[in-house]
Amino acid sequence: MPTVLSQMLHIDNNEPMLLFVGQHIWEKNLRLVVEALGKIAKTPYHAVFVGDGYAREELIAMATRMGLTGHTDYHQDKVTFLGSITDRDLIRQIYMGADLLLFPSMYDNAPLVVREAAAMHTPAIVARHSNTSEIITDNYNGFIADNNVDAFAALWYEMALRGQCHRSVMLVCPLINTHLLSPRMDCQYRCLCLQVAVASEVSWQGSAFLC
Q1: Segment holding 19, helix H or strand E
Q2: 68 Cβ contact list (under 8 Å, min separation 6)
Q3: Which of 15, 44, 153, 155 could form a disulfide with 39 if both were Cys (CB 3.0 to 4.6 A apart)?
Q4: Strand ranges of the sheet holding 143-145, from the earlier edge strand across to the other edge
Q5: What are the CA-CA distances from residue 55 to residues 3, 26, 71 (Å)?
Q6: Portion of the chain with pLDDT greater than 90, in percent
């Protein structure tokens, strides 16, 4: 993760960054996210939530009760809630700085955030049998877990401690977008993805998720 971004988010450079971007509503399966994060609270990671919604305050309260956020010393927090961000350049930096996008929603049909993250070489973990899982090939361009707390927690634990988020997945994940493009645009998009990959090489070398 770039140093400036890690300082802004109060994240140790050695901590994997987990990211959720989207509406803070229960339909997004966010209760599963927070409960799973609580199960692996003693492992190295920092989760960042970007967005707003009717469940935001309840979500923060839930994370606080679980000891994941709300500490007087913010360095003890495992979760940061950034609220809505309209600065597209900042969003791009956050996508690029993240190691994994968390997207367990069962009801989204064509989530733009998964494609945006993939374009920045940040793979997503999605719920099995969700609409989103149809564009993910497990362990190739992203990750799929059963739709329950234990399954998501176990996969994150493996990634955080044992480097199971392979570099190859980070390199390949942008290709989930290519079926939307014409052959000419596909070629241009692949070239752009390669440029992003080269530009991100230094930050990837320091990622705790790489093996």
Answers
A1: strand 17-21
A2: 34, 37, 38, 41, 47, 77, 78, 79
A3: 153
A4: 79-83, 46-50, 17-21, 100-103, 124-127, 143-145
A5: 31, 6, 21
A6: 44
